[in-house]
């Protein structure tokens, strides 16, 4: 009888253990300063151009740097939009960090594309600036990623030749008009009820 109880208890422990989430594998620590600059990256906007979030697009192109060695480990290219240095000043939430897992400068995903080894590693992507991109100056960085998803090389457009994005404020003219109408109506209703209450008291 005791043996049956032990078996049952062991079964319960096994089942409970199977239901628990497995701990996530630790991410490989990657430092930008340690990565080879193996990609040549360019963007269509010129320095000082202004793109409007939700409307305008930019074209990103990348190709392997012929002098940077082998690209055999490259499986995909991950492209990000990064705050230019001028838009990071006194803004800790945009701070650049050499440890890529702590970096806050490159927050916005542009695309992830397979590395086109058969096409010489060249790639291009047209990106419509997302509506949630805030007003700031930006440059573009592309990472070459290996089979495990770890960044193994990078390239970027010049941070000193940044372009600007005009973000969406979220307040449209129609919304402003509606707010004005409701504010006026609220004041008028308040005045009306004040007069009615005053007359009741006077009676």
TrEMBL record:
Keywords: Cell membrane, Membrane, Nitrate assimilation, Signal, Transmembrane, Transmembrane helix. The chain crosses the membrane at residues 177-196. Pfam families: NAR2. One of its GO terms (cellular component) is plasma membrane. GO terms for molecular function: nitrate transmembrane transporter activity. The keyword GTP-binding does not apply. Residues 1-26 form the signal peptide. One of its GO terms (biological process) is response to nitrate. Belongs to the NAR2 family. Involved in nitrate transport. This is High-affinity nitrate transporter. It comes from Leersia perrieri.
